[in-house]
Amino acid sequence: MGQYDSEIEESVGSQTDIDVEEPPMYKVMLLNDDYTTMEFVVEILMLVFKKSPEDAVRIMLNVHHKGIGICGVYTFEVSETKVNTVHTLARQYGFPLKCTIEKE
Ligand code: TYC
Q1: Which residue has the least CA distance to atom 11 on ligand 1?
Q2: By the 8 A CB rule, do 60 and 38 touch?
Q3: What's the confidence (pLDDT) of residue 15?
Q4: pLDDT for the residue numbered 7
Q5: Would you give the distance in Å from CA 14 to the centre of its chain?
Q6: pLDDT digits over 61-79, tens only?
Q7: Which of 21, 34, 74, 103 is most buried by its number of CB atoms within 10 A?
Q8: What is the mean pLDDT of the chain?
Q9: Is pLDDT at 25 greater than 50 in this prediction?
C-alpha cells in the first residue's frame, strides 16, 4: 500500500463493493413442423446457433421426435436476434419453421 492508496480507493470506490450481476439468460427453443426440411433445420443450427454438423443433426432429430428442443441459451437481446434471423431465413425459403424464447 502506498501512502495515498486508501484515499484513492475511497474516491473511486473499492473493487469489492461493485455488484457484479450475471444478466438473465433465455433459452431459444426450436419447434417441429411437418414442412420444413431436415436439411434446412440443420443448416440453421450450424449457421445461426454455431453448432457442429454432428450437434446440429442431433438437435434437429431431437426436435423432430419430441416436438420441441433447445438450441442454446443467450442474453435476451442475443436470443431475440437469433429468433428473428431464423424466422427471416425460414420465410425467405418458404418454410414455416418457428422458434421461441423461454426464460431459464
Ligand atoms: N419434421 C420435419 C420433417 O420431417 C423436420 C423438422 C425438424 C422440422 C425440426 C422442424 O424444428 C424442426 N421434414
Answers
A1: 32
A2: yes
A3: 56
A4: 41
A5: 34
A6: 999 999 999 999 999 999 9
A7: 74
A8: 89
A9: yes
Residue tagged 446457433 (cell numbers): 49
Rounded to the nearest angstrom, the distance between the alpha carbon of 32 and the centre of ligand 1 is 5
Give the residue carrying C-alpha cell 450450424.
46
Beta carbons within 8 Å of 68's beta carbon, 6+ residues apart: 29, 30, 31, 32
Contacts 24+ apart (CB under 8 A), 79-82: 79/26, 79/27, 79/28, 82/28, 82/48, 82/49
**Ligand 1 atom closest to Cα of residue 63:** 9
Report the side by side order of strands in the sheet with 26-31. 68-74, 26-31, 98-103
Report yes or no: 63 and 41 within 8 Å, Cβ to Cβ: yes
**How far, in whole angstroms, is CA 35 from its chain's centroid?**
24
| Residue 18 CB coordination number (10 Å) | 7
